[in-house]
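Worked Example 4.2. Consider the chain below.
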Amino acid sequence: MITKQREQELITFILNDELMKFYKSKEWMQLRLKALKRDNHECQLCKAAGRYHKAENVHHMKEVKTHPHLSLTLSNLQCLCIKCHNEVHDRLESTRAPKFMNEERW
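Applying the procedure from the previous section yields the following structure tokens:
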């Protein structure tokens, strides 16, 4: 079990924009594994759409920057595949500049 003092320390990392310290903490790593086990290592958005994809990411439904007090709450976590996680955060490939293509297409 996490102490109040340690929990406050982790929240302070988030508030000070030191997210990597939070995400590398043993408390986050343990909670992340619990979420993956709970969701059977399946992407929950793919599953809801009737598809299967392995979950590689654990997503905070209420973002850590706006809700740091929920950063270590299991019910605020959702396991997602990389594609779905990027979509949730609006990091779609279609918004990236297209790669240069040679004018000569054979």
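The mean pLDDT is 91. The beta strands are 57-60, 77-80. Compare this with Example 4.1 before moving on.
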